[in-house]
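W.,

You were right to be curious about this one. When I first looked at the sequence I had no strong expectations either way, so I just let the prediction run and decided to look at it fresh. Below is the sequence, 266 residues in total, followed by the output.
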Amino acid sequence: MHNCDLRAIVLCFFTGFLALGFMSCESKPKVIESEASVPADKNTGTATLPSLSEASSSPAATENQHKVTVSEVLNTERYTYLQVDEEGEKYWIAISKREVAEGDTYYFKGGLMKKNFFSQEFNRVFETLYLVSNFWKQPSGSEAALDEAFAQMNTAQGAPDLEVRPGDIQLAEGAVPLAKLMANKAQYGEQLIKVTGKCVKVNPMIMNRNWVHLKDGSGEGADLTVTTAEQIPLGAIVTLEGTIALDKDFGAGYRYDIIMEEAVLR
């Protein structure tokens, strides 16, 4: 046998071996975060989704508005997985945990696509999953329409009482009083904390997030700005958990000495 024939046989064998190895790896569920992998929680070992803010900030996020009907709801401690139907096409999205009714119609904008996402909580692979931070029930074609929808939601049962008096609000267990937070900003910087307060102002869907102002009556001028994907009506008393950021500058005039980010209802 000629040397050139032997080299050809070896090359073919080696190429086939690599192909088989690649196929065997690809056949396993992949856990994906952004462009790489989703880290496991240090305490539970469960794969966790990246922050939902990535769904709006990532260059890979889509910006189209979608109208969907919810066909299945799966809740976890922090997230809600939804199987939705959009003009006959079914797929899965993940939002921050909230009450969603099967059969109802919702809208969302943006969404970061994940392929073959393996959830240990449900022991299943979601072939295609979209991380969505901008998700709402009212139809919207503009920021003005969103403002109107929030106004209707906030005034549906009459003008809300926005006054906060000392002693009016009972703090949830573990919640930090806003006066204490404001007086000890450095102590709470980059910390995940809970606060309880009354929503006295809402600016919806600016930079793909809702901007909520909370007061708890614990001190004069104690007003905390919170960014969240949750929809919170004016006058509502809520407990929110999020990360405290100091000297935060979002640009366009949005600068805060202290702010709570990516808050979720507790």
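Here's what jumped out at me. Confidence is low (pLDDT under 50) at residues 1-48, 51-62, 140-149, 152-158. And, maybe more interesting for your project: The two ends are 75 Å apart (CA to CA).

Coffee later to discuss?

I.
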